[in-house]
Amino acid sequence: MTTPAAPRPAAPATPAPAAAPSARTVRWEIAIVLGLSLGRSAVYAVVDLLEKMSRGPLAGQTTTLNPPLADRQYFDLAYQLLDIGFALVPVLLVFHLLWIRGRNPFRTLGLDLRRPGADLGWGAALFLVIGLGTLAVYAGGRAAGLTTAVVGSAMNEYWWTTPVLVLSALRHAVLEEVIVVAWLFDRLGYLQQLRAGADPALPVAEGGLRRWAGGAFPPLNPVAVVVACAVLRAAYHLYQGIGPGIGNLVMGLVFGAVYLRHRRVAPLVVAHLLLDVTGFVAYPLLAQLGWFGT
Q1: What are the φ and ψ backbone dihedral angles of 115, each rounded to 5 degrees?
Q2: Which residue would you say has higher pLDDT here, 3 or 19?
Q3: Centroid of chain to Cα 40
Q4: Among 25, 69, 75, 5, which residue's Cα sits nearest to residue 191?
């Protein structure tokens, strides 16, 4: 008679929560993630702006957002897809850092499908407001000579060009909103809690910012977090000129305020995606209308 095999334990849905990280650990995590992604982009953007200003007036220069990466069609396609894929690796790192602490990254950041209607509605509203503001800031920056002519895409017209431009827009939307808003707000909020003497074992996991308004923790300063993240957003857009830097600063303040109110990054991703698809895919039509490149 054989002994029946012992049943295998079911795998846990999420890992067991790890010990609350120290402030030093969180600072290193922030530095590494930003150094691999948008912090690095900010440094390059500042240097690029200085280099352009040293060449001459910004009004006479052009910035191309989606250039071709190879002369031959399918090598260009391969490079474009590789560029998009590798750019999203820092987002995977952020998800991993949340997961190993026993947190569901999609639920923690508000990137799940619990409220699709509200997310789409808020995203569309933000798109309309920020889109009109962006056009106004761009036109003003061009008139003042503070903004380069922005070309949404200089890629050749292939059968895959539009899908790749949409993927590129999605890449920017996910990368920027997940890291610069949802994750960075969460980590900076956690550091403020530690600085204020809050117990790190308290459930910061499902959004430390949620308790700011309710006063469950000692007084914190969410405004400082919103402003810091908006300044970072402005910095990595400075390669387009000073005008886009100002416009993205305002966009960061608005997006930050919306995130503090709803604690969901999905509407911001939707709005950002619509903005970039409009700029990348609809660029030829917008250029004909005189909104770009003059």
Answers
A1: -135, 65
A2: 19
A3: 14
A4: 25
- Please name which of 146, 152, 181 lies closest in space to residue 165, comparing C-alpha atoms: 152
CA–CA distance, 138 with 149 (Å, rounded to integer)? 9
Dist. CA 163–CA 135, nearest whole Å? 24
Tokens standing for 142?
A: 């061009």
**pLDDT tens digit string along 225-259?**
999 999 999 999 999 999 999 999 999 999 999 99
> Rounded to 5 degrees, what angle do the CA atoms 246, 251, 253 make?
100
Let me know the angle formed at the C-alpha of 275 by 273 and 276, rounded to the nearest 5 degrees.
65
For every residue of 212-235, DSSP letters joined together read TTTTSSS---HHHHHHHHHHHHHH
Query: What are the residue boundaries of the structural domains of the chain, listed by start?
Result: 28-288
Residue given tokens 């209308």 in the structure block: 289
Residue 141 has a pLDDT of 86
Distance between CA atoms of residues 176 and 228, nearest Å: 14
